[in-house]
Write a structure and sequence with these properties.
mainly alpha; 195 residues; 9 helices
């Protein structure tokens, strides 16, 4: 239960990955596939942290810096893409370019996941360290992995409840601006070293 609650608390904050899954859920585009990609990625990172991969990041701190710069560049680009979409308008419940094919959707999802240093710090370092101090590290990590699956599938499939709201083009513009602001704020925090 402690692994589940900590894992859930770490992924509840809205971030690039969550915003992407929310958008996919609203448009009903590849939701199952993208939820599986996110949850499986989290599972890999959590288990890597529990089995000592966090030491790798402590040994090579420059790697975290490199990931921060690469991740912030990608997030800035994705934010501009969202702003461009908000300015262009004309969307209703149609998927944008990133969500038009499963290949593009998965690649974008993987980039939003694996180029975000927060993911490594939260899952590999923090969860790994706490899991290794618990009575049963494996059981703790299973709880955190279950939390990830529950969260992403709830977000992805629960987003359908917002469809009536997003039948209006203005709602899409607001969501795109919101996504851009989230992406840019995280990118800026990475550049300023607050990750």
């Amino acid at each position: 239960m402690s692994g589940f609650l900590l894992g859930l608390s770490l992924i509840l904050a809205i971030g690039p990955q969550n915003a992407f899954i929310l958008k996919a859920g609203i448009t009903k585009q590849f939701v199952l596939l993208l939820c599986l990609v996110c949850a499986a990625s989290d599972a890999i990172l959590i288990l890597a942290g529990v089995f000592g991969f966090g030491v790798f990041f402590e040994t090579f701190p420059n790697l975290t810096g490199f990931i921060a710069y690469a991740g912030s560049a990608f997030l800035f680009f994705y934010g501009f893409y969202a702003i461009k979409s908000a300015i262009k308008g004309g969307k209703s419940l149609e998927a944008d370019g990133v969500l038009k094919s499963p290949y593009k959707a998965v690649i974008s999802c993987l980039m939003l996941t694996w180029l975000n240093p927060h993911v490594y710090l939260d899952t590999v370092v923090l969860l790994g360290a706490i899991a290794n101090q618990s009575k049963d590290p494996l059981l703790f990590s299973v709880g955190a992995v279950v939390a990830s699956f529950v969260f992403f599938f709830s977000l992805g499939f629960g987003a359908r409840l917002l469809r009536p709201l997003f039948s209006n083009e203005k709602s899409w513009r607001v969501l795109d601006v919101f996504i851009a602001l989230v992406m840019w704020s995280i990118a800026l925090s990475l550049l300023l070293g607050n990750y």
